[in-house]
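can u do me a favor
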């Protein structure tokens, strides 16, 4: 019997016409109403595809004339569907990777070479999962599965289309409408994760006033300016705020706790910060985050540098320092490559490592294949890049970031593991199509201002907000952490993975990104992957096709 293991505390379970529906995301109310009116699966999917937010649904059926399991992940949705045959041969679907892993015996948890290569390059597995037997439904894909079939059928059935009749000058007005629609279903019973940056602060007006909020921070000196940002933003928007404070000396222990709960490598160094909120915040179980705004409207650091290089390419500009000259020439070379080139600027985005060392370890063929697979995955879901070379590389880099970077997915799963839900309005379908309605690079920079669409909207809500201040992103000083900080002894406690590149000296001397990738994998390997007593998270609900005897809507396992 097919079973869904459901970690999301806010997912709805609806029974109708011999089907059991699991609805996650923005528009549960509209979808539930359609199901209760007797809509079939295709009608529900068409409604789902037409709505502005983010979501995923699963349908279990006991009807003989249709597949036992169908699922659809919205085109922008980070509400995941992992699926596998467990160690007993039973079909299992879940929204939390850890729950799928718990259904496999340790001997069945094989990490394939492609996952190791992905982790070295990206800190995540952008398209697949970390374990060979566990599969992952892609953005915009629909799954059909009947027990007895070894492999489910999956198909890309939803893509993004640019919104028409938009201009850079008025796009913020449309964003106001879209955010209002996406936040309305949860405005009364959610708390805001307030970092003080543009992306979180601009969401405050769309939640019930007075807004309940939370800020979390370690006492890391390099992040002091971000704590000040959060304080100033809260003084401006006047939320009822709780501050979760953590000490840097306990970072490794908090990292271990986060990985234990999450059940997968933690991706970014900020994951313990999110886990601290989920564990310690005394507020709503639904937390609204500004994550996703950078991917659709922002311009990441490497692409901002590329903008300067591209604009000065005809001027004979020579940076005054030799190292800057070398970087200038390298970036220009990356921009002159085709956007699908593995070494082009677009596909170098969201790569977190020393690439030459990783290529030595995994081979150039595998490196090129994984890079091109990211390109194809993202470009299958959005219109092809147009414009000059810079515009095309920015388009590719930002949508590869949106679909393949995975931070929202990991941080949402970290919340689900703690019986919390992270709600991300900027991951709504209508937000992505609004962004696509502006040509690249004007969707990212207009009149010299990066991320101008949400910034202009924030300026109308709060004119006093300083939109020119340097951007913060919560990034920890990885090099210091690994050399002399809380991760200094991590490789004494956890053995360096066997697939690590062969480098002379300390890993951090070659690349702090590479060292973190290996450390985070080693923590997961020893604490979770090899665990022989791994269980689904305690609040998991088990939903299966009803048998002939009555069964509760969502039994806790």
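np, heres the sequence
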């Amino acid at each position: 019997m097919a079973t869904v293991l459901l970690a999301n505390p806010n997912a709805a379970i609806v029974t109708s016409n011999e089907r059991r529906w699991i609805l996650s995301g923005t528009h549960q109310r509209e979808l539930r109403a359609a199901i209760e009116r007797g809509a079939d699966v295709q009608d529900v999917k068409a409604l789902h595809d037409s709505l502005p937010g983010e979501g995923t649904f699963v349908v279990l059926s006991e009807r003989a004339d249709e597949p036992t399991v169908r699922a659809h992940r919205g085109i922008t949705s980070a509400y995941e569907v992992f699926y596998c045959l467990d160690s007993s041969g039973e079909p299992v679907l879940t929204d939390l990777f850890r729950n799928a892993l718990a259904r496999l015996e340790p001997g069945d948890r094989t990490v394939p070479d492609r996952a190791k290569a992905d982790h070295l390059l990206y800190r995540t597995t952008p398209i697949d999962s970390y374990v060979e037997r566990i599969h992952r439904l892609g953005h915009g894909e629909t799954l059909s599965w009947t027990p007895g079939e070894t492999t489910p059928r999956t198909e890309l059935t939803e893509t993004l289309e640019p919104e028409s009749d938009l201009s850079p000058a008025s796009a913020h007005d449309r964003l106001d409408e879209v955010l209002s629609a996406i936040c309305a279903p949860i405005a009364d019973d959610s708390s805001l994760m307030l970092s003080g940056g543009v992306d979180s602060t601009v969401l405050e007006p769309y939640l019930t006033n007075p807004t309940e909020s939370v800020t979390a921070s370690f006492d890391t000196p390099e992040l002091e300016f971000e704590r000040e940002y959060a304080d100033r933003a809260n003084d401006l928007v006047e939320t009822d705020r709780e501050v979760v404070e953590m000490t840097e000396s306990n970072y490794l222990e908090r990292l271990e706790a986060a990985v234990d709960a999450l059940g997968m490598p933690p991706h970014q160094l900020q994951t313990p910060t999110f886990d601290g909120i989920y564990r310690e915040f005394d507020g709503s179980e639904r937390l609204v985050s500004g994550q996703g705004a950078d991917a659709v409207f922002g311009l990441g650091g490497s692409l901002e540098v590329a903008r300067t290089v591209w604009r000065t390419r005809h001027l004979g500009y020579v940076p005054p320092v030799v190292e800057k000259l070398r970087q200038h020439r390298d970036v220009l070379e990356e921009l002159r490559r085709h956007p699908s080139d593995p070494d082009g600027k677009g596909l170098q985005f969201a790569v977190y490592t020393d690439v030459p060392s990783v290529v030595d370890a995994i081979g150039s063929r595998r490196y090129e294949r994984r890079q091109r697979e990211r390109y194809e995955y993202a470009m299958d879901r959005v219109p092809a890049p147009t414009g000059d070379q810079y515009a095309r590389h920015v388009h590719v880099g930002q949508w590869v970031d949106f679909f393949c970077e995975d931070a929202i997915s990991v941080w949402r799963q970290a919340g689900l593991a703690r019986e919390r839900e992270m709600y991300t309005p900027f991951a709504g379908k209508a937000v992505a199509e609004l962004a696509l309605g502006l040509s690249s690079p004007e969707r990212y920079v207009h009149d010299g201002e990066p991320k101008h669409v949400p910034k202009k909207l924030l300026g109308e809500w709060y004119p006093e907000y300083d939109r020119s201040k340097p951007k913060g992103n919560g990034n920890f000083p990885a090099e210091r952490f690994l050399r002399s900080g809380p991760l200094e002894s991590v490789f004494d406690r956890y053995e360096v993975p066997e697939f690590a590149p062969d480098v002379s000296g300390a890993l951090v001397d070659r690349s702090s990104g590479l060292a973190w990738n290996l450390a985070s994998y080693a923590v997961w390997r020893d604490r979770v992957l090899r665990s022989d007593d791994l269980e689904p998270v305690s609040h998991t609900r088990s939903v299966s096709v009803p048998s002939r005897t009555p069964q509760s809507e969502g039994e806790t396992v």
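Confidence is low (pLDDT under 50) at residues 546-552. hope that helps!!
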